[in-house]
Amino acid sequence: MKSIHSSTLPLGNTGARREESNPGRKRKETVMSTLSIQQDENLASTASPVFALFKDVEVEAPDREHLALLASGALSAIRVPGFFSSEECQEIMNSLQSCQMGSYDEQRVQPRVPKLGPAVYDYYGGYKNGVLPDSYWEHSRQSEESLSRLLFDSDPLDIAMEKLRQIWGQPVSRATSNGRQLFAGMIREINNSMKLHFDDIVREIPGGLDTTPMCQLAFNVHLSMPASGGESVIHQRRWRPTDELPENRDTYGYAEHIVADDASVSVRAEVGDATFFDSRNYHLVRRNTSDGRRVTLSFFIGVTGMGPIVIWS
């Protein structure tokens, strides 16, 4: 399997950049700085330049251009160190001790993945005529009440959304389905791996969102991590119809041989780090190889044609 290694890019202070008199020029410089390291990967066999453009980067102060590069496929993943403080992460973990965790459907998803909060995908079987079942909305209501008290009696989702608004520079809101806000901010514990899969709301729940996103990104803040293992692996490969052949399926996921010839990156996060990647690319989570728990606050980000972004789980 091909692998492209991580790069750390000193991109400077985002706030200072926005104060420049020529923000367009500064945005272009940001793009060129981020992409310049990839120009040695010219894959063209002719005189026409064709760049691989699948690096993952570490950025302390990301801005809109970084998410735009990710959405365009020019980056594979972004890691933001210290998105949450260690104190915030520890408080959430302490609060989770008194929360009852559910899980994905254990008849489909093994090993078991404990979680707090519903995924829209959990209810695809009850999604009929463009309407999610009542059970989704009740599950969402209960989970929102639990989430709202996890961080010093406040909601960690509020902090994540505000930071995301600062990065994007436009409003961030929860996605809606038939005018009702979807749940966002799932807490998940993946200790024993998650199989190769992709997440694409447009394919999985057609018409499920009131505003169809042009791109879907995955967002995770790592609240607890083992000393080793628990990496996310993202492949430069999207779903194809032939992937549904029996030899390519692995229960709820897909057999890893379908991505054997595709570029990939392995992203290792520490406590408090946030990661972004395009969830429509095939991805998986490696099992923990030491003591410790791998717990994240997770949701999807929909980049819409209108400019603002929406989130859901």
Walkthrough of the structure:
The protein has helices at 14-18, 23-36, 64-72, 86-96, 134-147, 156-168, 201-204; strands at residues 7-8, 55-58, 75-80, 102-103, 114-116, 172-174, 176-177, 180-181, 186-189, 194-197, 215-224, 232-235, 249-250, 253-254, 264-267, 274-278, 283-285, 295-303, 309-312. The chain has 313 residues and is an alpha+beta fold. The strands form 4 sheets. Strands 1, 2, 3, 4, 5, 6, 9, 11, 16, 18 and 19 form an 11-stranded mixed sheet that branches. 36% of the residues are buried. The model is unreliable at 1-20 (pLDDT under 50).
List keywords for this structure.
313 residues; alpha+beta; eleven-stranded mixed β-sheet; four-stranded antiparallel β-sheet; 7 helices; 19 strands
**Number of E-state strands:** 19
Largest sheet: 11 strands, mixed
Shape descriptor = globular
Q: Note the run of SSEs as H and E.
A: EHHEHEHEEHHEEEEEHEEEEEEEEE
What is the rounded distance between the termini? 30 Å
Helix content: 10-25%
Uncertain stretches: 1-20
Average pLDDT for all residues:
88
Residue fraction in strands: 15-25%
Outline of the structure:
With 313 residues, the protein is of the alpha+beta class. It has 7 helices and 19 strands. The longest helix has 14 residues, at 23-36.
